[in-house]
Write a structure and sequence with these properties.
By secondary structure, the chain is an alpha+beta fold. The protein is about 20% helix and about 25% strand.
Length: about 350
């Protein structure tokens, strides 16, 4: 007897900055489909991957009311399955800690315990932003936290501050207004707390990367992370950072931080369109040598509002361009990608 299965299309209302609707609807099945797979060896250190998985899982379990599901949920990859996948990664790494062999780095183990949902890129969306991609590719950019010099007070070339959130009444100032000194003189003088003083270039780097490490003479380096934006959309086609109107206020943190302040582990975390893809997805990225990089979707940014063709791989903290380029050299610019989901029936914990 033949059983006819008819796939039902499911519409997803694509959202943009601050979760606002874009007016565009997409079919998740156009971008994600479960496929048979034969992964190469995983290049991501299993224990680091588990640390990232644990950080996201801990946040998810502490916030059961949070709306974190994305466009894979209508296809069956809902919050429960995402949490189960993360919990399994944590368990296996914990059992393998200190062992020469790490199962999360073995192709046979990955294929036997995880489904693979291949990602078909939003080619039209990429073309609209000047990015050429094949359907089976995503764009893989890289980000970092620069380590820069700064001061506790204005001095010499350090005349531009990272500011704490001034509150909703003043939050809407644009980047050019703040950089030009809106909080230093005029009607808004002194109404936002300067956290640290940088060069103008340093401020733009902090805004672009989302996190920056600042070295001030006489004390230990400190990390600052984006906290709240001015609500102005990021304009991908605006390449001059001084003309971009989107602005972020910062706060001091004790670690690299992503969505909802979740701690990030370099080289096993990626930023992406969390609003539409969903928080906590376990991502597989194919390297040029056929190996597999695993990472957890735990961060986002202005470039992903919305964006169904790109991820941003967290490299770490670097003081020089040469160090950064050496670290990202093995990571391709375009690659095939997919979502790993724990198979039904596999023991989670």
């Amino acid at each position: 007897m033949w059983l006819l299965c008819i796939a039902t299309s499911v519409g997803w209302d694509l959202v943009g900055p601050e979760g606002q609707p874009t007016g565009r609807q997409v079919d998740p099945q156009d971008h994600f489909a479960r496929e048979d797979w034969a992964p190469g060896p995983a290049a991501s250190p299993a224990q680091d991957l588990a640390q990232q998985a644990s950080a996201v899982l801990t946040w998810l379990r502490a916030h059961p009311e949070a709306e974190v599901e994305g466009m894979l949920a209508p296809l069956g990859v809902d919050r429960v399955r995402v949490e189960d996948t993360l919990a399994f990664v944590v368990r296996i790494a914990r059992e393998d800690a200190g062992q020469a062999s790490q199962r999360l780095e073995e192709p046979a183990f990955l294929a036997g315990h995880f489904e693979y949902w291949a990602w078909t890129s939003d080619v039209a969306g990429a073309q609209a932003r000047g990015v050429a991609l094949e359907p089976d590719q995503i764009r893989l950019t890289k980000y970092l936290a620069w380590s820069v010099e700064g001061r506790d007070a204005p001095e010499g070339v350090f005349q531009h501050a990272l500011y704490a959130d001034p509150g909703p009444d003043l939050r809407g100032l644009t980047r050019p207004e703040v950089v030009a000194g809106a909080f230093r003189e005029g009607a808004h003088a002194g109404r936002a707390e300067p956290l640290v003083w940088l060069t103008e270039e340093g401020v733009y780097e902090a805004l672009m990367q989302g996190t920056i490490e600042v070295r001030v003479p006489g004390r230990a380096a400190r990390l600052y992370n984006v906290h709240v934006s001015n609500g102005v959309p990021y304009v991908p086609t605006q390449k001059d950072p001084s003309e971009q109107e989107r602005y972020w206020y910062f706060r001091q943190v004790d670690a690299l931080r992503g969505v909802e302040g979740i701690a990030l582990s370099p080289q096993v975390a990626v930023a992406g369109d969390v609003q539409d893809l969903g928080l906590g997805l376990l991502v597989g990225l194919t390297m040029d040598d056929g190996g597999l990089r695993l990472a957890v979707l735990a961060d986002t940014g202005g470039a992903f509002e919305p964006n169904l063709f790109q991820l941003d791989w967290l490299a770490g903290t670097y003081a020089t361009r040469a160090e950064f380029e050496a670290a990202v050299k093995p990571i391709p610019v375009r690659t095939s990608a997919g979502i790993l989901v724990l198979k039904d029936g596999v023991r989670v914990e």
